[in-house]
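Pasting as-is:
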Amino acid sequence: MRSSRSSPDKRTETGEGRTMLAVQFLRAYNFFYFSLLAVFISFLPVYLTFRGVSPAQIGVLIGMGSFVGILSQPLWGMVSDRYKTIKKIVLLTLGISVAVGFALFQSVHPAAFFLLVGAMYLFMLPTDPLTESLNYRVAEQHGLSFGAIRTFDAIGYASASLIVGFAVDRLGMERLSWVYGVYGLLGFAFCLAVPDAPASGKRLSFADLRRFFAYPATLRFFLLVLVAAIPHRTNDSFLGVFVQSLGGTSGMVGQAWFVAAISEVAFFALSAWLLRTGSEIKWITLAAGLYAVRYALCAVAADPIWVVYLQVMQGITFAVFYTATIQYLYRIIPEEWKATGQTVLAVLFFGISGIVGSIAGGWLFQHLGGSALYLGMAGVSLAGCLYSLTLWPRGTAST
């Protein structure tokens, strides 16, 4: 009798224990996946420079990859929807990314760089939104906040940026492939233990896009996002190369990305409080103006350590800007267009702006130098700040 009465409690405790274990595996997977992403995004331009690739060629490579990413993210989303699984698709794209990335960071031939960078954007970058979807759905299933899992993304990105920078200084850039491989295998191993979640969500269609872009407020807003995102994505591509052009080490590159990531964590946490009054356009204007200040200060920095310190502005610029754009977008468009709006925003901010910023930025860097590039980025950010002022009268509009 005693054992039968206690068995439901035991089953409950066992179920709770399995839930917590599954969540811990998911957090560990996020930590190592975003560590892997940090190695790729933060150190790919540095590695290409080490192999003798010029800034202009780096810009073309990353721009080409961004174009591939625009096409590949919806593709893998549709595959996930078709087979009603997120985890299995993540395992597929992540596994291929680990193998391709290992080969990329051992390559020395320019032709191989184009092939392997394209493959990385085909498999590695789509793993990011699939991972975010998995995080959200597992958190929802187990009654947890999304932030309780998402925080480990930023911790992984920040710690890897710092660790890899110092590791490369000591082991040599030739060993970057092994560092990448270790992070990748650990991420894959923890992903195997993560619970699956069914894929869902509205797919983007051309009919949706035509109707969506009929809203004038939407067109004006997306133009602002594109202008502000171009210098941001240029910085993503050339921050490491710029630090090294000033005499900085790979360790300093890692420190710069570490400072930026930690700053993002703080301001993402504060963003809900900052934007509680609904004054998104004012915060967008402030962030765009501070982008201009940040890049102008980088342009005149004589010592690479000052560029590292200036990355603390990443929080008030990117974190506040991006959160405010999403909140404002959700407020100016009807409910039925929100999924479409989120997709278009991601394509503009992380896709098209990446193509323009990488190719144009690479040309400017090679022909005029890093300081001229960052001064140009400051000018574009200032233009975005001034343009955002034209949206202020519409900042509280509902359509």
